[in-house]
Amino acid sequence: MVMAVLLVATVLAASTVMSAERPKHWPKAVSIGSGTGTTYYAIAGGMGKMMDKYLGVAGIPTKTSGGEETARLLHSGDLDMGFITPDVGYDAFRGIGNFKDIGPAPIRVFLQDFPLHYNLVTLEGSGINSWADLKNKSGYYRSRGSSVMELLWGASLEAYGLKSKDIKKTMRFDRASEWINAIKTGKIDFSLDCGFHPAGKWMELANTHPMKIIHVDNAHIAKIQEKLPWVFPLTIRAGIYKKMPKEVQTAAFAVVVDCRKGLPEDFVYALTKMIWAHFDEFKTYHPVCKFFSPEAVKRTNFAYHPGAIKYYEEVNLWTDKLGERQKKLLAEIGEKR
């Protein structure tokens, strides 16, 4: 009872502070790059409504062609924040890869998205019990246009001593229904797809067929991380699907919500606090919002905004280890904040 009273008092206090008049040095409006997907556009819209309600700042969802354009618009100052895939964020922060032409983007993380499993899906009896068993098999290896799945595919094959030429046939899909129907009818041996669990696409297959998702042990996760340091291990709990009584570990990643590093520290602090103080409201804007977690800060491979760090320190989630990681990340681009 005492804890419940304290929690209510904390939330009410946060609401009172956040509802106060907007400080003059805060932006009047911020643009939120959300890519082309309806999921992120809905989340951006929800964040915008909450900013207007609690911070007195207009949040404006802005569609982009994807993570790379979002990062470039953040670099140019034409966006204030946005959703970026970890492969794009990794390169943009350092000014490498597709960002060599413009150099390091002045971006900092304030929120990590829900984690997405990278799933190797097959059926019992397929002869696939490990990534190593993909040799001479056929299947869908990524969704069309997914750069992050392309990177994960290459790193995962290499971790298991395979090359693309070892796979009999690989294809790309536009919709999950393509690979689901192909597995059901025996046209393919496997498929790769990303997402959270439980989700309808895996439920559909598991309810009618002996589906299994291939386990990736810690040793192979470590090999994948050598190529893709933003990857982390994530467990699918036992019994979540029919015929999958044991827990399964996969490689996973999380989209990050970046902002311009020049946004006022107290504004980003208030923004970060707003999300978690009013999380019950935030998670109503899209079903996947409930999978966001402040604990995700512990998985960070990206430099955080000082305002966000202040909040995570207050709630005892920002550790000395994360502080050292932050220093190393900033040192890579010759900065301290």
Sum up the overall morphology in one term. Answer: globular
Number of domains: 2
Task: Please report the distance between the alpha carbons of the first and last residues.
Answer: 41 Å
CATH architecture of the largest domain: 3-Layer(aba) Sandwich
Strand fraction: 15-25%
Described by strand count, sense and barrel closure, the largest sheet is: 10 strands, mixed
- Regions with little confidence, pLDDT below 50 for 5+ residues: 1-19
Mind telling me the CATH superfamily name of the largest domain?
Periplasmic binding protein-like II
Q: What is the CA-based Rg, rounded? A: 21 Å
Number of helices: 12
* Sequence of secondary-structure elements: HEHEHEHEEHEHEHEHEEHHHH
Report the CATH C-level class of the largest domain: Alpha Beta
Question: Which fold does the CATH topology of the largest domain refer to?
Answer: D-Maltodextrin-Binding Protein, domain 2
Given helix and strand content, the structural type is alpha/beta
Give me the count of strands: 10
Give the helices and strands, then pairings.
Elements: H1 2-18, E1 29-33, H2 38-55, E2 58-62, H3 67-76, E3 81-84, H4 86-94, E4 107-123, E5 138-143, H5 147-159, E6 169-173, H6 176-184, E7 190-195, H7 200-206, E8 211-213, H8 218-227, E9 232-236, E10 248-260, H9 265-277, H10 279-282, H11 306-314, H12 320-332
Parallel strand pairs: 1-2, 1-3, 5-6, 5-7
Antiparallel strand pairs: 3-10, 4-7, 4-8, 4-10, 9-10
Helix pairs in contact: 1-9, 2-9, 5-8, 6-7, 9-11
